[in-house]
Amino acid sequence: SQQGEEDPQALSIQEGENATMNCSYKTSINNLQWYRQNSGRGLVHLILIRSNEREKHSGRLRVTLDTSKKSSSLLITASRAADTASYFCARGYSTLTFGKGTMLLVSP
Amino acid sequence: GAVVSQHPSWVICKSGTSVKIECRSLDFQATTMFWYRQFPKQSLMLMATSNEGSKATYEQGVEKDKFLINHASLTLSTLTVTSAHPEDSSFYICSARDATSGIGDTGELFFGEGSRLTVL
Q1: Residue numbers of A between 16 and 55 with CB closer than 8 Å to B
Q2: Which site among A4, A31, B74, B101 is 20 to 30 Å from A64 CA-CA?
């Protein structure tokens, strides 16, 4: 399968805590993207990190990429209840291949 | 940001009927649109790539006669689920590529809100 693997599959934390989600992949990449999906909704693009980048920030989001380990992580700092959603990593250039996703639950 | 509109957002139909789902890029032209299928609590699986003015490219295992895709204009692609059966019940999501904006040189990708199909 070309799909990446995210872990954990589900994560439950309290507001204010940090949430870390990981994504592993098998083939070489040009870039890796992270998306968010609220229940029953479409996807929202969060951040893209290129293969020559090691870390990228966007607001409370921090993404790292380790091409030697074929893995990436998404860190959400100071989480809020509104961050409750599923998070997917996606690889590809012309078309995207999505990982299995992590369901994040942030409790007030 | 750019908006991709899907319609209907949910539909219930009887087994054996056909259902059409529309995907529109509202403020940009999309030479390429993608159709995904998502089962509950699972990832998105690419079904097909739709190119304006040409036949769609289907992923392995996706029946082209079952899932008819038409991309007749630069702002509209449609997915028709023909002779729908309960196993076709799923969440269908489209995405559209804006060729004029940039993730690399392949254009930024925008997703619709999805269409939930329930076949009774």
Answers
A1: 30-31, 33, 35, 40-45, 48
A2: B101
> Which pair of structure tokens corresponds to residue B75?
């702002």
Distances in Å between the Cα of B1 and the Cα atoms of A13, A99, B54, B106, B118 are: 31, 25, 27, 17, 30
Contact (Cβ atoms closer than 8 angstroms) between residue B25 and residue B98: yes
Instruction: Report the chain A residue with the minimal C-alpha distance to residue B90.
Output: A40
Chain A residues near residue B113 by CB distance under 8 angstroms: 41-42
Q: Which of B4, B46, B108 sits opposite A95 (nearest CB)?
A: B46
pLDDT tens figures, B47-100: 999 988 888 999 999 999 999 999 989 899 999 999 999 999 999 999 998 767
